[in-house]
Design goal:
Elements: E1 4-10, H1 17-24, E2 32-39, H2 45-52, E3 57-61, H3 67-84, E4 92-96, E5 100-102, H4 106-116, E6 120-131, E7 141-148, E8 151-153, E9 159-161, E10 176-178, E11 185-189, H5 190-196, H6 212-222, E12 226-237, H7 249-257, H8 261-278, H9 281-286, H10 288-305, H11 311-331, H12 338-342
Parallel strand pairs: 1-2, 1-4, 2-3, 6-12
Antiparallel strand pairs: 4-11, 5-12, 6-7, 6-11, 8-9, 10-12
Helix pairs in contact: 6-8, 8-11
Length: about 350
């Protein structure tokens, strides 16, 4: 099998998938294979892929199983193939959304970085935003606006895409360590994923979608794996829920209002699950002055303006015992202290 296994989870993604696959097969680095997991699409994804890219492996789910579980299926399949036919180098997994467009040297840059930095468990590149076509040209706008340069954590337990919404003026041209990488386009060592695996889960199935990348990044940090940002690995992203890292309360409210009820439910519930699974008393107590106002504000907003999302808290309580079990499995083999993790909160 090829050394790099590229995984795309598609759910009615025909608007984006053709450009994503074309950009993958135009890469200068060629030692890769592609797995597309069709999460119960109704727009002809499976037929189109078979007709236009017959070399792509397709897994077909009869319903939408979520980002996390579908990617777990792809990783498990790649692992089983590698066991039968080992690659020429250390196995690497590229998790990507269907609305990503890679520049031609993306894979080459990332593989070189992975080989040069064996301490890393995950790597990410620089993503810029793609906007809808302008009325003048009818072509998508490949912008100079940052989508993500990695994950950043605040003491309030706000988890953001670093640099999101900023104009790219070169402020993120320096490669280096980050807390973790965005699940929109994330490079992982198979060995790191195996270390973080719980039963058959790499990403947490219970998250379904949203913040599952933060959860995996946190686990990898606890287990002693570094994450690295590579500024020369450039890609573009049609992000459905546009957001910005630097925002006030008013902008945060406006951004939340345009998100779907499902996204708001998952985001609220998974925020709760993240803290149960990964946070520690020593860090929670140190950061209470930031956490309490943020979480109280979130709860009051949901209570007064978004009551349909209240069930997210009940679902978090329902899943709490399972999260505690998963937490114990990671903390039993942790390699980094609370102080090591605390340095990432800003």
């Amino acid at each position: 099998m090829a050394r790099v296994s590229i995984h795309i989870v598609a759910w009615n993604s025909m608007r984006y998938l053709p450009d994503a696959l074309r950009s993958i097969f135009e890469q200068t680095y060629r030692d890769f294979s592609v797995i597309v997991v069709d999460n119960g699409s109704s727009d002809g994804v499976e037929e189109w892929v078979r007709n236009h890219f017959p070399e792509v492996i397709i897994l077909r789910n009869t319903k939408n199983l979520g980002f996390a579980r579908a990617h777990n299926q792809a990783i498990a399949l790649a692992r089983s193939i590698w066991e039968k036919s080992p690659p020429g180098g250390e196995p690497l997994v590229l998790v990507t959304n269907p609305d990503i467009v890679l520049t031609p040297t993306f894979l080459e840059t990332m593989v070189r970085a992975a080989d040069s930095h064996p301490e890393t468990g995950s790597l990410g590149g620089k993503l810029r935003k793609i906007f809808s076509p302008s009325s003048e040209t009818g072509q998508p706008l490949y912008s100079n606006i940052i989508d993500t340069t990695g994950l950043r954590l605040y003491r309030s337990r706000r988890f953001v895409e670093r640099g999101a919404g900023e104009e790219d003026r070169g402020q993120f041209d320096q490669a280096g360590p980050v807390f973790g990488v965005s699940g929109a386009l994330a490079f992982y060592r198979l060995s790191a994923l195996e270390a973080a695996r719980y039963d058959n889960e790499y990403f947490d199935d219970d998250f379904f979608a949203y913040k599952e990348d933060v959860d995996l990044a946190w686990r990898l940090q606890l287990l002693g794996f570094d994450a690295r940002y590579e500024s020369n690995a450039l890609a573009y992203h049609w992000r459905g829920a546009y957001g910005s890292e630097k925002r006030g309360v008013g902008k945060a409210i406006r951004e939340r209002k345009i998100k779907s009820p499902v996204v708001n439910f998952l985001s609220t519930r998974n925020q709760c699950l993240l803290l149960i699974k990964n946070d520690e008393r020593a860090n929670l107590f140190r950061h209470l002055l930031w956490i309490l106002p943020a979480e109280l504000g979130r709860f009051l907003w949901v209570l007064l303006r978004e009551p349909a999302t209240l069930s997210a808290y009940l679902d978090c309580l329902r899943l709490r015992p399972k999260m505690k079990t998963k937490r114990a499995a990671v903390f039993a083999k942790r390699q980094r202290s609370a102080a090591d993790i605390r340095k990432w909160f800003v």
